[in-house]
Amino acid sequence: MDTREYNFTFILEPEFPINSYILASESLRIANQYQMKKIFHTHLISEKGKQVRSTNGMWFKTDGSLDEINKPDFIFLFASNLPTQKNSKKLLSTLRKYHHKKSVIVAIDTAAFAIAQAGLINNNTEITLHWETKQIFLERYPEIKVTDDVCTINDNIHFCSGGIAMLDYMIKIITNLKGPILAKEISDALIHTPRNFNHSQKNNEYNSIKSNLCQKAIGIMEKNIEFPIKIFNLAKQLGVSIRTLERQFLKDYKKSPIKFYLQIRLNYARNFLFYEDYKINDIAHICGFHYNSVFINAFIKEFHKTPTEFRKYFRKEQNSNLQSEL
């Protein structure tokens, strides 16, 4: 087995995803424990070296600032729920610097936005990020190929969709660096069966018990958000009657296809409000609502808040997590 030691730098942005961070750091800690020596070294970094608050409100002390990064083999970027608004010029230049130095850059959860802002990907790059932000990313970077895979690797830029996928990524990387025996010990210790990187992010087990007709219909709906397809045309495209389509949706989802389609579009709108700063009327248009009043009334009915109230509530939480870095 390779006896080399490796340096892992974890860049923590304010409101970083603690679930992914814990899985990454614990995988390396357990590896060191089983080897009875430090084969993996970790360094926590924030932009200015100050403590950082995670998504669940816990604060973490760091080992230094972006200027104090020292010879990293891997740089993990744990991004925030504001994936474009808080990426400073300093952060983006740091990513470019270490990409040039051939460090492996790992973009976790929403960190693909920072990689794109830094100009490190192009239309030949295949990326992944958390499924909630896929459509938001494509709105900004329509030329980039975005997969639904849990992880993707492009030379020395890697992408991990976050959550449990972080553990899949760590097992694979440790396998590559130190062999399958140690990697299996770690997956066993964390009681996890690793998935292939091309595994879908979403759990298809629930959908597998639903009709193939509904799944095809939903696929078409999700590809027609900004300009919703009429149910008559949807049924025609599927080769069934409207009545057959409605009956199957009521059986599988207890909702008509019209209501189901509306919920998909409202969920897209909710994600745009949470992650982006687009104007309300722009979000309405992106999600297929061409009259603000229709969008606002539908949103209130689904989420019991106006779009503006929804955004203000979460921005208050997000900004409270940023104070230590201001």
Structure description:
This protein is of the alpha/beta class. The protein is 47% helix and 12% strand. It has helices at residues 18-35, 89-100, 112-117, 134-140, 165-178, 180-189, 205-208, 212-222, 231-238, 242-253, 257-275, 280-286, 292-303, 307-320; strands at 6-12, 40-45, 52-53, 59-60, 74-78, 104-108, 126-127, 145-146, 151-154, 157-160. A 6-stranded mixed β-sheet has the order 2-1-5-6-10-9, with helices on both faces. A two-stranded antiparallel ribbon has the order 3-4. Helix 1 links the parallel strand 1 and strand 2. Helix 1 packs parallel to helix 5 and helix 5 packs antiparallel against helix 6 (180-189). It is globular. The model is unreliable at 320-326 (pLDDT under 50).
Layout of helices and strands, plus pairs?
Layout: E1 6-12, H1 18-35, E2 40-45, E3 52-53, E4 59-60, E5 74-78, H2 89-100, E6 104-108, H3 112-117, E7 126-127, H4 134-140, E8 145-146, E9 151-154, E10 157-160, H5 165-178, H6 180-189, H7 205-208, H8 212-222, H9 231-238, H10 242-253, H11 257-275, H12 280-286, H13 292-303, H14 307-320
Parallel strand pairs: 1-2, 1-5, 5-6, 6-10, 7-8
Antiparallel strand pairs: 3-4, 9-10
